[in-house]
Amino acid sequence: GGSGSGSECTAATVPRITALGCANATRWVEVTGVFDYRGSGTQASCGWWVGSGSSGDCHLWSSTNRCYNPAVVTGPNTAYCLLPPDSELATIGSTQWLRMTLWVYQAGASTPNLNQCFSHEGQSSGSWSTGDFEEYDLSCGKQCTVASKPVVNGVLCSRDELDSVTVEGSFAFYGSGDTRASCAWWAPAGSGSSSLFTCVWSSGMCYLPAHVLNSTHAVCTRPSRSSLQSLSSSVTELFVTVQVYHVRASSTPTACFSHLGTSSSSWQAG
Prior knowledge:
The protein is mostly beta strands. It has helices at residues 86-89, 225-229, and strands at 16-20, 28-34, 42-50, 57-58, 68-75, 78-82, 97-106, 134-137, 151-155, 164-170, 179-188, 197-199, 207-212, 217-221, 239-246.
């Protein structure tokens, strides 16, 4: 960036983007780069793009701001861009990556939409290069970690005819639309087994469907009646483990599981 004597965008004031942070609680994404910042008169917007190369497509996120979402430049190297709402992100399917471009201009500019006001300088998306845009991972900050692993504290009693039970504990909750979960039920392993528990398979699956209600409760599908009837008569109780992850993040890291992927012989309460 840099400042000129006039308010118009020039080749010297083209916004350059070098990095993006994760969205905060109010959906603002920190943008690092080089920007023509001149105080409160500096205006900005950001564009979110789906696809890559020549297939890049700027979505019309709303009927009011169309492609460009609100943004604010707070200094020569820092800006903030508003991530589109979940209702809009839901329309792009399983896409995990978006591309973001920045539009910066001065309040006094007579032509605020010159190519040089845009980080991509008006080029088609297939011609963009480093600095013209930056990729944003929609699972940013939502990957499973040991700190966010599911914790199971107990199972609420239920009538036998119910096909699901409520599990109490501590669960990562990203909203009902973005949180995915499953539960596995375990019976004590027989003598001679190196494991403490063995999974109760139901309909060919160890992990059964579940959904997280909030940060303290999840609902787990019970094993089928036939699966329960096949257990040894000596089995008087089952144990449950929970898997929780963000819909756009990987579901396989061990931190997504309450048992952290360890052998049942080393499991502890929770």
